[in-house]
Structure prediction request, 538 residues.
Amino acid sequence: MNILIVDCLAREKGERKSSLDVIGVGPRAIAGVLEAMREEPSIKVFEEIREDPWKISQYDALMISAMSSDHICAFRTLRYWQRYGGGPVIIGGPIGEEYERLLARGFDLVVVGEGERPVEVLVEKALDRDGIVFDELRGEPGFAYRLQDRVVFNGRSPWHTRRMLDSYQHSVERITDYPLYWGARVYVEVVRGCSNFYRPRIRLADGRKCIDCDLCRSGSLRQRLGCPLDIPPGCGYCSVPGLYGPPRSKSIDRIYWEVKELIDKGVTRIVLSAPDFLDYGRDWLVEPEPLTDPRNPPPNIEALKRLLETLWRIPEIAGGEVAVMVENIKANLVSEEIARLLAEYLRGTPVHIGCETGSREHAILLGRPVYPEECIKATRILASYGLRPYLYFIHGLPGQTLETAEETVRVMEEVFRVGAEKVTVYRFRPLPGTAFEGFPPGKPGVKDRASRLIYEKGVELNRRYKEQLVGKTLKAIIVGERKRGEGVAYPFYHGPVVVVENASRYYGFLVEVEVTRVLSERLVGGKIKRVLRRVKPF
Prediction:
């Protein structure tokens, strides 16, 4: 069967407002399952379908990958399919938690939870050009569908074991389906799941409140999986532990293979993706128990070193032709030894730290595994070793007060002072499957004084960061053009998008750019100092 996978991830109403250069893991993971079963998948981003909806007509089945915030994009894709396509339509990803709403809007099948095994079962038993044989899915976990007038939900897909995850090979062939894959940050999954199984202590929207049994903080690793009140695990605003479970680290051989194959396809920027990169190999230290403690044991230095050493044997990485980055780490796991190891391989690249609130008491209420003072310390250590800390904060969270906002502003200023390169401020949105799903969204800064303090401080600090870039030179890939010959460039090692003078003729080239001005909160301007090499395949 010709199966189309449409990537709606982080596209909300149909296009990305930030992280424009990201290619996530999910669609390639599902494409890999289909390829192993001798199906013929293709991946298209939503923007391609919007520009030419008729393209959708050549496929036998449609699969959509989306997050909880991507409803509008997913529903628009469904309408295109109903008008121009035909055959079964399936949706999965974090959005699957809202299966009743999705089924009511016309989706045939919703995959709920981790997708690899359910898609394998679906193709083996129930999917053909004429539709889905729902009788074959009775009792199979990971599916929701309608039978006559009722919704059937078979439960979430169980968390896949580490060995199961290693058995599924993410597609590398389909990376070339993405526009600009040669200049984008391509995510390679190294860890799935999060070790924070603390529970929030704030009273929830449905009236439940932690009874201070302390099982999730001092119980055995297996005891921490459950909660007497069934409060979902993790930070109250985050769905990762509940949806994807405790960390499971992929084997070094599997990661090496995928990275090497992607580079052979022309990928030039790799992100080693994990809810916490420092969880890599920590699960191996406690097997067969689940890793449900975000603080102990400490990082598996040996495993991290072996992974990075192995990847740096790839000539293109060792020679600097391919940029390798990591994303999220927990501040409480950062030490001098960790910073020294990361700097050996990743010096000059960003490292993202979730701080969210500057109040220690608020952090405990939220279920956070990390305290603000640890974020400050980790920022100082990482910056001293030549890494580039990026800090996340959220305004409008449950329990926010003017006092917690003022503390947050002080912490934002302090992390910037000790070496943070950038702060990112989000507005709280309740997500399905989280402890905070029943709360209202955070108020915009214009409507709430406490939120305004945090939001405005973020704008101020990021403006200062961009002003500090003026006069500096960075490497960037020209990936598009604007008016009057200007080029649009993505920094090789990540950073703000650069509008480059007289650069459209260098589309597809890696260049050195001198930053000359700040254009907006998200853009800087610059001029080419030197053309380095072509990276776009001919």
